């Protein structure tokens, strides 16, 4: 299942939306220069919350809690580029809630037109060490993006990929004329 951004926090003012009104709208589809958020300020952060995991829309492929036996892993999917002639730009991406997973540093290549895809490590534990993921973890998930360095970045996509095992389907079919 893919979870898309649904809101960005107030601490995100140095991340400027381009092509959309709100930052999270710029990050919900991988459409390069059509819409993106830009940041050139070192150490400034943007908090992102994600759509409810059971919200099924044309873009958000949510799944109801009852349809999931267990969650195998969660990782972020991103697309961005550096606005510099030769140097890449870096963004540190961290699971703010739940906390405990290590921060990943993403390097987006310098290019006039092309965006770089950087996908995070598949995390099998919500807290970084044990216990796996729960549906409640997905319902309260918040990501933190922190600009690292002086090279401006354009970030066009930041979704979450959730890998899970489907729950067994119960068949209540009639068996020899009687339901059991």
* Uncertain runs: none
Beta-strand percent range? 35-45%
Helical residue percent band: under 10%
Average of per-residue pLDDT values: 89
Q: What is the count of distinct domains?
A: 1
- Structural class of the secondary elements? mainly beta
Helix-strand sequence: EEEHEEEEEEHEE
CATH architecture verdict: Sandwich
Major beta sheet summary: 6 strands, antiparallel
Number of helices: 2
Strand element count: 11
What is the distance, rounded to the nearest whole angstrom, between the alpha carbons of the first and last residues? 34 Å
Radius of gyration: 19 Å
CATH superfamily: Galactose-binding domain-like
CATH fold group: Jelly Rolls
Please tell me what the overall shape is.
Answer: globular
CATH class: Mainly Beta
What are the salient characteristics of this protein?
single chain, mainly beta, Jelly Rolls, six-stranded antiparallel beta sheet, globular
Q: What can you tell me about this protein's structure?
A:
- This protein has 180 residues and is mainly beta.
- It has a single domain, classed as Sandwich (Jelly Rolls), CATH 2.60.120.260.
- It is 5% helix and 41% strand.
- It is built from 2 helices and 11 strands; from the N terminus they run E-E-E-H-E-E-E-E-E-E-H-E-E.
- The strands form 2 sheets. Strands 1, 3, 4, 6, 9 and 11 form a 6-stranded antiparallel beta sheet that branches. It has a 5-stranded antiparallel beta sheet with strand order 2-5-10-7-8.
- It is globular.
- The protein starts with a strand and ends in a 14-residue tail after the last strand.
């Amino acid at each position: 299942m893919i979870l898309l951004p649904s809101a960005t926090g107030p601490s995100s003012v140095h991340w400027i939306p381009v092509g959309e009104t709100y930052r999270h709208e710029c990050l919900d589809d991988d459409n390069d220069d059509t819409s993106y958020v830009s940041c050139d300020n070192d150490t400034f952060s943007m908090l992102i919350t994600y759509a409810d995991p059971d919200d099924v829309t044309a873009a958000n492929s949510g799944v109801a809690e009852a349809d999931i036996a267990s969650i195998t892993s969660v990782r972020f999917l991103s697309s961005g580029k550096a606005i510099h002639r030769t140097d890449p730009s870096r963004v540190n991406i961290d699971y703010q809630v739940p906390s405990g997973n290590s921060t990943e540093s993403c390097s987006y290549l310098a290019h006039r037109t092309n965006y770089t895809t950087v996908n995070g490590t598949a995390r099998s534990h919500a807290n970084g060490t044990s216990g796996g993921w729960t549906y409640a973890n997905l319902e309260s998930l918040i990501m933190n993006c922190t600009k690292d360095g002086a090279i401006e970045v354009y970030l066009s996509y930041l979704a979450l990929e959730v890998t899970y095992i489907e729950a067994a389907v119960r068949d209540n079919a009639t068996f020899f004329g009687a339901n059991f």
